[in-house]
Amino acid sequence: MKRAQLVGFSVAFTAAGLAYYIASAFMTPPAPIMVEKQVDSTDVLVAGSDISVGQIVSEGNFRWVSWPKKAITPDYITKGSGGPARMHEFAGSVARSALLAGEPITTQKLIKPGQGGVLAAILPQGMRAISTKIKAETAAGSLILPNDHVDVILIRHLRGRSGQDENVADTLFRNVRVMAIGQQIETKGGKKSADVSASTATLELTPKQAEMMALANSMGEITLSLRSVADLSSDPERAGGLDLNKPQNNSVRVVRYGAKSRVYGVN
């Protein structure tokens, strides 16, 4: 190859490399400019790990997390306002509700020792907890879980006008929350069914309803009718004015095995 050709190839190769370098420089996006913005924050006491209902907590269950001051409510416990002492006071308390890791700790979510047991801690103010006997056929096949809502039905025997015994079913309460099934007060580990060996269900009722429930337990058999989650807000009012000592007028007579019986519907 002639010398002139080698020089020409060298010049062309150098020009091509220079052109590629210049083009790459123009195509490379500029480096982002980082602007630091100071946020006014303070340390807030939060759950260091998931805390379940009824769990007894210690100082190891808490931690401090930087929190924007604009997002802090008066219920939050801050480090600058006696927080460490408050954290020490919370040691040994019982969780009234489930807490997720990183969720702020408040006095409403924990109950101190001596202020009541687990069930009393999760029972809303003004409400009462009362239990009733259950079995598979009276509790939706043992598929009712804590925090489900049910209708409470009383089945009892009455002497009819004809002098024959009649079976009567009365809906005592509607849309009642189940607080516990046996000793189980919450569902853990994705459990989809209650303890089949449980013999009691604890219900959340008003004081007047609790009186009626105690009377109904002595009058006949209680059946719990499970409600759909889509039906909870459509029927917020609870029945409770039924007089168990008086028969109802809206009765339906059904013939069973040659004997008549009545079923009462109360709404």
TrEMBL record:
It comes from the Bacteria. Pfam families: RcpC, SAF. Transmembrane segments: none annotated. CDD domains: SAF_CpaB_FlgA_like. Residues 42-111 form the SAF domain. InterPro entries: Pilus_assmbl_Flp-typ_CpaB (IPR017592), RcpC_dom (IPR031571), SAF (IPR013974). This is Flp pilus assembly protein CpaB. It comes from Hyphomicrobium denitrificans 1NES1. The lineage of its organism: Bacteria, Pseudomonadati, Pseudomonadota, Alphaproteobacteria, Hyphomicrobiales.
